[in-house]
Structures are given as structure tokens and as C-alpha cells.
């Protein structure tokens, strides 16, 4: 029977567990408060279409000539949206399909004007109005090659006999340069902290053979380097080069880390019940297949949007409705399958291992901390997007829904502190040594150990075992004397 490298988790008392969660919430709260005090993420400039008409034109539908505010690489991206205001005699909902033509020009620092593309983009859009009309994204530029942009917009088939256009409002949206600087610094801080935690975790396990690590310890050795990529040490490249590549790299790193985290939950909850060797074909392949489909869907959606926007800045997912709906349905089916499989593994693990020393403690701690993280994540998503999470244009409009830095820092801080906490409890303590009683086998642990026979630390600060403090030193001594 192989020995298992010890974990700090086994030596924690009740108040230590409480302290771990308190520190986690304090660190997360600090990042949220810093974000609330930070700058807003999106800068907006709104103009009335009547003041942007080309000469000798009185039509409410254009053509309009718009010139963006001065831009730098710290603005990161550029959106042009329009909001159509109608003179309505009632507040009934209606839909109106219309055509939109867009011409984009870039203005150099020497004031020379460059045609970004030779052709004019023609797109069909759907106007939905109730009490007010929904905002329409006209153009989205994922990276900025010029210090200013000139965009000519013209609407056709927009006028109706029943509803007359009162005004068209255009809004330029870019990232706030102050927020870009905050993002750079916080990503840098998280990169440094993650690198330190990774080194400390590896150093704590240096005297134990890798084949003796527990399944959580093996997974942490994978997740911590991926967390380093999730924080993206290459992020400053997006401000040094005008290219889509740094943004694509950041999206790829995030997708890889998040899918690895999903795979970690499946493997650990199943691994608690599997004794001995975990075979690749029967243990890992089904999980890799499910999570791999999620990763493929996420990366495909990201690449799909980016590649199409490079060729056509007016492209939106709703333009390619058929393919996008198919991808959306496929993604939701795979997510549902993953959730059902994870719930099945958790229920099986809790029902079979609830009375087994060591294993049930690992199970309870991971489940409690993960539940807290998931609840906070769902709450943030709901507060940030609300019902828009399920809309068709959700993916293409994510970046325009930020309100303040707290929404950015809450996600990054939550996942970073979650991994830091797991690394702390799964690493061996400073004076840890191999203990022949610790096995990565729940059946063996149950046969060889009892709650009263396993004692760590001093009597005054007894650790948790099976969720309760062990107070059995006297009983242990009496049994020894009787033997």
C-alpha cells in the first residue's frame, strides 16, 4: 500500500477552519471594495444624429458622419452604438427590419485619412421598440490601429407611416484609460502572488515522491500554473502592439484554466471513491470528453467572433443566427450534461464516504468552499447581466455591460483566492513527515484508523476529524495500559 503525502487539512482545528474561510472572505472583500472605489470601465460619448448630418441632408435616417474621440492603446476597443427615438402614439411593442450601410476610415497622427477597407459594409438589423427602442451596435473594433476613426452610417427602410423617427442618438464607447492601468497593475499583482504560491506549494511537497501525492495535490500542481496563465503575464503586450493576437491569447488562457477547473471537480469527486490505479480510458476519458466539448465550444465562439470582426467590424452573432443558435443549443446541452454528472458524483461520494476518516474531511471542505465560490459567481453574474445572460446577443455584448472595476476584480479575485486557499490546506505543514496510517484509500483508512486513535497536535488544540474535535488522549492512554 503506497503512502500518502500528508495535508495541512488533517491538522486544522475547528477555529482554524473558521479562520481559513474568514481570511478568504476578507481577501475577496478587499478586492471588491478596491474595485468599487476604482474608475468606471467604459467611457461614453453621446451625440445627436441631427448634428451629424452630411451637408444638404434633412433625412432622419442619414447619412451620418461621425468622428470618434482621440484614442490610444489604453482605450483597448471601440464600439459605436445607436439608439433610435420615435414619436409614438402608443407604447405597443413592434419589430422593424431595416438595412444599414457603414463606411470606416482611420485618421493618422498627421491627420491623413486612410480607408480601412475599400468596400462599404451592408447589414440588416432588427429594431425592437416598446416604451423605448433597444440599443443597436453599429461597429465594434477589437483593437485600435489609428488615433481616431471616421465612420459614415446610413439607414434604409427605417421610416414607417405609423411611427415617425424623432431623433437618432449615437454613442462612442471605449475602455477608460484609467481602468486599463488598474487592470494592468492588478493582473501583475495576481501574477506575482500566483507565482509565489506555486513555488511555495511545490517547495512544501519537495520531500515527498510525486506518486505519493494525493489526487488534490496532483491537481493543484496543474491548476496553479494554469492560474498563472489565467492572470495572463502577456497582457501588457496588447498595449505595446496593435494586433488581435494578445486578446485572442488572453481568451484562450481563460478558457483553458476554467475548463481545467471543471475537470478538477469531476476527477476529485470521482477519485475519492476510486481505489488504487485510476485508468486513463475508464476514469479520465469520459470527463475529458465532456469538458473538451465545453472548451471547444468556448474557443470556437471566441475565434468565430474575432475572425469575423477582423474582416467585418459590423459583424454580430445575430447576423449569423442559424449557426449561432445551433452552437448555443449545443453548448447548453453539454453544460447540462456536465452539471448532472457532477451532481451524481457528489451525491455518490457523500453517501458512500460520509463515515470514513480523512476522506470525508477532504470531501466536506472541498464541497463547502466550492459551494461558496459558485454562489458568489452566480450572484455576480446575475447582478451584472440579469436576464441578458440568456439573450442571443449575450456573447457579443458582454464587454459593454461593465459598470465599474469591482465587476472585473470580483471575478479575478474570487478564482485566485479560491486556488490560494486550496493550495494552503492541501500542502503539507512545515514539520510534516510521512505517516504510515495515511492512505489514499478510504477502505484502508476506515479499517486501520478510528476517530479516537488519530491524534495530531496538542490536547488543548485538537484538530477536526470527521467534522468534530478529537478529545481522546485519556482514552487512548487507558487503552494502551490495558493492552
Element layout with pairings:
Elements: H1 14-37, E1 42-48, E2 64-67, E3 78-87, E4 94-107, E5 113-115, E6 121-129, E7 136-141, E8 148-156, E9 164-175, H2 177-204, H3 215-230, H4 237-240, H5 245-271, H6 280-311, H7 321-353, H8 359-385, H9 405-426, H10 442-448, E10 464-465, E11 468-469, H11 473-482
Antiparallel strand pairs: 1-9, 2-8, 3-7, 3-9, 4-5, 4-6, 4-8, 10-11
In short:
With 483 residues, the protein is an alpha+beta fold.
- The protein's oligomeric status is single chain
Classify the secondary structure makeup into a structural class. alpha+beta
Q: What amount of the residues lies in strands?
A: 15-25%
Backbone CA Rg:
28 Å
Strand segment count: 11
Give the H and E element order. HEEEEEEEEEHHHHHHHHHEEH
Distance between the termini: 27 Å
Largest sheet: 5 strands, antiparallel
Helix content: 40-55%
Low-confidence stretches: 386-401, 434-480
Mean pLDDT: 77
Number of distinct helices:
11
Shape: elongated
Structure overview:
The protein has helices spanning 14-37, 177-204, 215-230, 237-240, 245-271, 280-311, 321-353, 359-385, 405-426, 442-448, 473-482; strands at 42-48, 64-67, 78-87, 94-107, 113-115, 121-129, 136-141, 148-156, 164-175, 464-465, 468-469. Strands 2, 4, 5, 6 and 8 form a 5-stranded antiparallel sheet that branches. Strands 1-9-3-7 form a 4-stranded antiparallel sheet. The protein is 48% helix and 16% strand. Mean pLDDT is 77; it is low at 386-401 and 434-480. By secondary structure, the protein is an alpha+beta fold. The protein is built from 11 helices and 11 strands.
Amino acid at each position: 500500500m503506497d503512502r500518502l503525502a500528508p495535508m495541512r487539512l488533517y491538522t486544522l482545528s475547528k477555529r482554524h477552519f473558521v479562520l481559513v474561510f474568514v481570511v478568504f472572505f476578507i481577501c475577496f472583500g478587499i478586492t471588491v471594495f478596491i474595485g468599487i472605489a476604482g474608475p468606471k470601465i467604459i467611457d461614453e460619448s453621446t451625440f445627436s444624429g441631427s448634428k451629424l448630418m452630411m451637408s444638404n441632408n434633412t433625412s432622419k435616417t442619414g447619412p451620418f458622419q461621425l468622428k470618434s474621440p482621440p484614442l490610444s492603446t489604453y482605450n483597448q476597443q471601440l464600439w459605436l452604438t445607436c439608439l433610435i427615438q420615435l414619436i409614438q402614439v402608443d407604447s405597443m411593442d413592434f419589430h422593424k427590419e431595416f438595412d444599414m450601410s457603414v463606411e470606416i476610415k482611420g485618421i493618422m497622427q498627421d491627420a491623413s485619412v486612410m480607408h480601412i477597407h475599400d468596400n462599404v459594409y451592408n447589414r440588416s438589423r432588427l429594431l425592437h421598440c416598446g416604451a423605448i427602442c433597444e440599443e443597436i451596435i453599429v461597429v465594434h473594433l477589437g483593437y485600435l490601429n489609428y488615433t481616431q476613426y471616421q465612420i459614415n452610417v446610413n439607414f434604409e427602410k427605417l421610416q414607417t407611416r405609423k411611427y415617425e423617427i424623432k431623433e437618432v442618438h449615437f454613442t462612442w464607447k471605449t475602455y477608460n484609460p484609467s481602468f486599463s492601468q488598474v487592470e494592468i497593475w492588478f493582473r501583475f499583482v495576481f501574477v506575482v502572488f500566483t507565482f509565489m504560491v506555486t513555488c511555495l506549494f511545490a517547495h512544501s511537497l519537495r520531500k515527498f515522491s510525486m506518486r505519493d501525492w494525493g489526487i488534490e495535490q496532483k491537481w493543484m500542481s496543474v491548476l496553479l500554473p494554469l492560474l498563472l496563465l489565467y492572470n495572463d503575464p502577456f497582457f501588457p503586450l496588447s498595449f505595446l502592439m496593435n494586433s488581435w493576437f494578445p486578446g485572442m491569447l488572453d481568451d484562450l488562457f481563460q478558457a483553458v484554466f476554467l475548463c481545467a477547473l471543471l475537470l478538477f471537480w469531476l476527477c476529485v469527486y470521482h477519485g475519492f471513491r476510486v481505489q488504487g490505479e485510476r485508468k486513463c480510458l475508464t476514469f479520465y476519458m469520459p470527463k475529458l470528453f465532456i469538458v473538451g466539448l465545453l472548451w471547444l465550444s468556448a474557443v470556437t465562439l471566441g475565434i468565430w467572433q474575432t475572425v469575423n470582426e477582423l474582416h467585418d467590424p459590423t459583424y454580430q452573432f445575430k447576423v449569423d443566427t442559424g449557426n449561432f443558435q445551433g452552437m448555443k443549443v449545443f453548448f447548453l446541452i453539454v453544460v447540462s450534461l456536465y452539471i448532472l454528472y457532477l451532481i451524481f458524483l457528489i451525491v455518490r461520494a457523500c453517501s458512500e464516504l460520509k463515515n470514513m476518516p480523512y476522506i470525508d474531511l477532504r470531501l466536506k471542505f472541498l464541497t463547502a468552499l466550492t459551494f461558496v465560490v459558485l454562489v458568489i459567481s452566480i450572484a455576480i453574474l446575475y447582478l451584472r447581466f440579469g436576464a441578458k445572460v440568456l439573450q442571443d446577443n449575450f456573447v457579443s455584448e458582454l464587454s459593454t455591460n461593465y459598470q465599474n472595476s469591482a465587476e472585473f476584480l470580483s471575478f479575478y479575485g474570487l478564482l485566485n483566492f479560491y486556488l490560494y486557499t486550496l493550495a494552503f490546506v492541501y500542502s503539507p505543514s512545515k514539520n510534516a513527515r510521512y505517516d504510515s496510517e495515511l492512505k489514499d484509500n478510504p477502505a484502508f483508512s476506515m479499517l486501520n484508523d478510528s476517530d479516537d486513535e488519530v491524534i495530531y497536535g496538542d490536547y488543548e488544540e485538537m484538530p477536526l476529524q470527521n467534522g468534530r474535535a478529537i478529545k481522546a488522549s485519556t482514552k487512548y492512554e487507558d487503552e494502551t495500559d490495558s493492552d
